[in-house]
Fold this sequence. Notes:
By secondary structure, the chain is of the alpha/beta class. It has helices spanning about 35-40, 45-55, 70-75, 110-115, 145-155, 160-175, 190-205, 210-220, 235-245, 285-310, 315-320, 320-335, 345-360, 365-370, 375-390, 395-410, 420-430, 435-440, and strands spanning about 30-35, 60-65, 80-85, 90-95, 100-105, 125, 180-185, 225, 255, 260-265, 280.
Amino acid sequence: MTQLNAASLGTVRGHVITPAYDRKSRGIGIVHLGLGAFHKAHQAFYTDAAMAADGGGWKIIGVSMRNEKIAADFNAQDGLFTLVDRGINGATAQVIGSIDQALCAASQPEEVLAALCAPNVRVVTITVTEKGYGIDRTSGGVDLQNPTIAHDLDQTNAPVGALGLMVTALRTRRANGCAPFTVLCCDNLPDNGAFVRSGLIDFAKQWDTDLAGWIAEHVACPSSMVDRITPAQTPATCAFAQELTGTEDILAIETESFHQWVIEDHFPTGRPTWEAAGAIFTDDVAPFEKMKLRLLNGSHSLIAYLGLLHGKTYVRDVMADPALVALVRDHLKAATATLPPMPDMDLVQYCDDLIERFRNPNIAHETFQIATDGSEKLPQRIFAPAVDALGADQSLRAFALATAAWMWFCRSEVHEINDPRAELLRSAARNDTPAQMLSAFEAIHGLFPE
């Protein structure tokens, strides 16, 4: 079987969508940090559509933060990969061509820095998950105890973390008289632009207050809200992509048909026409961001922990259980009550649509995948709306249930806890009584709001 790459692109089956532009004539304009499944299904997809619609030199250099194999696999396929759209009524395949090459930050920090310093790179997008920044959520500054932050602040070492790489590159660009790139966070974090901005400034301040001031004045960090359910790749993903395309693709990924990207329109040195694929540009992302975090992400966390406690492997399995679906609907109703009015959004319809998306029988989204990093995710998904509900004298039952399900998941011996605070969580969950468990969780610094 022929492997997917630039030479074999013309051999893919006729019904498969391929890049509608000359890849060789398009320059590099973006560096992306965090070369995972979601980036391939979302930002790479949108950028592919932008270049097809409006041209421009916006190809992406993708950076895997630690995984050398992923970077090598991308380069072996000339950056090409298959995106399988798993709709409720069937599947389609598209070969995405927006990624030009890939690097690994852990083993190629100098090459990553060179890419970030290139004058033609005008945007840096990021998906390194909540825990990947090394930013203390309470202070907004860098976590000096974080091993990656500590490593990168030591200027005798080549940086390997997102903040270290970006600040080092911005320092070089400033010295060279080169305009700074725009930093676009695409992780599920409230006010994610301000979050990353505060981390960049504080990291720079550890070195040079003048550099920190320059970043504060000149580096744009727009916020964004992203949405597309994207399961982790499995062998079945690659087999199905091969069946659809007629080529072997070790990078194939599958996703749902729905996709959404809401972006604060602040790009001083330009941006792709992502609206060609439906991106929404606005002056205020916050209402969309809060809606998505509390409704989609909050209910996803509830589904994950209830599902794992009930032996459900996939989200669709949870949604096949009427009793669990009723709890998900209760959660959506409670979370909706904490949101401000959104004139351009029908929140009741949005919740109904979420239920149907979660039910999609063709999406195998593992509950364990969603359950990772609970201590990083629940503060904005569950605890923040609970605080708002408390202030409005609304019921806390739905949020209490999600929190309790997470705590019992942390107590379970069946599943590994994939979380930066795993040992603290496991220790707290092993207390004898629910009251003792709760007290132990409350004692974990910075976890629960006051």
